[in-house]
Amino acid sequence: MNDTENRLRDYLQTKADTVPDTAQGPGPQLDAPSKRGWVPIALAAAAIGAVLVLAVPFLTRLTDGEPTVAGSPAALPTGPVSAGAPRIPYAVTVHNNPDNPLDTWWAVIQDGKEKVENPGVKGEVLARLGGGWLVMTGYPDPKTSQAAIVDPNGNVTPLGPTGAHSPVISPDGRQLAVAASPYGAKESRVVVVNVDGGNETARLDLSVPSIKLIGWNRDGIWLTPELGDSRPVSVWQPGAGQPREVEGLGGDLQVVRTSDVVVQLTANGGGYCAKAVTLGTKGPELKREYCFEPAESDQAAVYVALSPDGRTMVLSTRVAVDIPTGKTTNLAIPARYSGWTWNSAVFEDPATVIAVTDTRGVKPLDQKMFRCSVTTGECKTLLTANPNESLSPVRP
After folding, report:
1. How much of the chain is in helix, strand and coil states, percent to nearest 5?
2. What pTM was computed for the model?
3. How far from the centroid of its chain's Cα atoms is residue 265's Cα?
4. Pairwise CA distance, residues 197 & 214, whole Å
5. Model confidence pLDDT, tens digit, residues 137-149
């Protein structure tokens, strides 16, 4: 099978194995009018950091002329968008909770018919993993920060060392990598552990004071220094020697573990450019560039999400871009829902994306979860957050 046939096969298999469940999980209600307190400090900090990252330009031009994509992949399947329950997990945060005064950790994980209340974990919910969900715990003390798995019974299994952050999952889902870079230390390290058992399988020591992990795909683990004006990206294959520095890429990338395509979003004068690249033997190879200027109604910062097959990038300006062809599709999310924050868009499958957004800056706040087709632009409202609660989509 070629790559296109594999993509189509995987998509159809996902569709065949999934029956949309119209029953909604406890907590958020379908299309119920609501308002929300205020954005968690952790999310606000992430948004500020993203704005700073977007100011970092590409260091070198990747290619000259119009990008080319080998082959002519078949179009993604189209069809009506379901209003059934989301097929990805999501976390619910309760605001103005005296037990969580900074609103910085979740109260409930909802995943289909499974509902798990927080067993005392202080941190984010990041992805499905190991029969449960990958979480971070230890907030706000970086010395006790640690990756862990919460299972459907609420049991917590720590993974990797304490003082770790920015966990990334291997392409096969069997391993987890974390960065350990204590504040004030002159060195950092990357630690790789097995999800089953937690034993360490690889380690990389670096003479860099602070690093973070971006993602892990077939090329390896993508990492970058957290400090400094110039933030080169490197790729390290566990078990190999030193990481390979990738010229022309810097700052935050979108990396998905199921594709070798990565996306860089950079500021460009009064607008932005989203560049999809793959890593070749001589460096990044440009597959698609999409430059635009946000409308005045859009938020100041712009974000991008990448589909699991690496074919589609979705921008928080409510535009989907097909990377092989360059075709753009406007998503029918009402313009008043402009409060799209970092990691608030997660793909259910290659053809549909879940976006959680709100009417930030307008009172009362109204947060909704939408399902959108990246091929037709049709969107349906799935959930409306209850008063004093917010929703965060979680990677499947």
Report:
1. 5, 40, 50
2. 0.80
3. 14
4. 24
5. 998 898 999 999 9
CB atoms within 10 A of CB 245: 11
Contacts of 219 (CB under 8 A, 6+ apart): 235, 237, 260, 279
Rounded-to-integer distance, Cα 188 and Cα 168, Å: 16
Q: How many residues does the chain have?
A: 396
Distance CA 154, CA 117 (A): 7
- In whole angstroms, give the CA distance from residue 321 to residue 291: 11
pLDDT for position 9: 42
| pLDDT of residue 337 exceeding 90 | no
Nearest alpha-carbon partner for 367 in 89, 123, 96, 32: 32
Q: Which of 284, 312, 308 is nearest to 173 (CA)?
A: 308
Dihedral sign computed on CA atoms, order 212, 338, 88, 45: positive
User: What order do you get walking across the sheet with 108-111 strand by strand?
Assistant: 114-117, 108-111, 90-94, 389-393
Say if residues 206 and 198 touch (Cβ distance below 8 Å).
Answer: no
Yes or no: say if 177 and 166 are a contact pair by the CB < 8 Å rule: no
In 218-362, DSSP assigns E strands to: 220-225, 232-236, 244-250, 253-255, 262-268, 271-280, 283-292, 304-306, 312-315, 319-322, 328-330, 345-349, 352-357
Reduce the DSSP state of residue 3 to 3 states and report it. helix
Of the candidates 251, 163, 236, the residue with the CA atom closest to the CA atom of residue 202 = 236
Q: Which residue's structure tokens are 């793959």?
A: 278
Residue pair 255/246 in contact (Cβ under 8 Å)? The answer is no
Tokens standing for residue 58 = 């590409």
User: Residue 8 in 3-state DSSP?
Assistant: helix
Distance CA 325, CA 112 (A): 34
Give the tens place of pLDDT for each residue, 241-278: 899 999 888 756 899 999 999 999 988 887 899 999 99
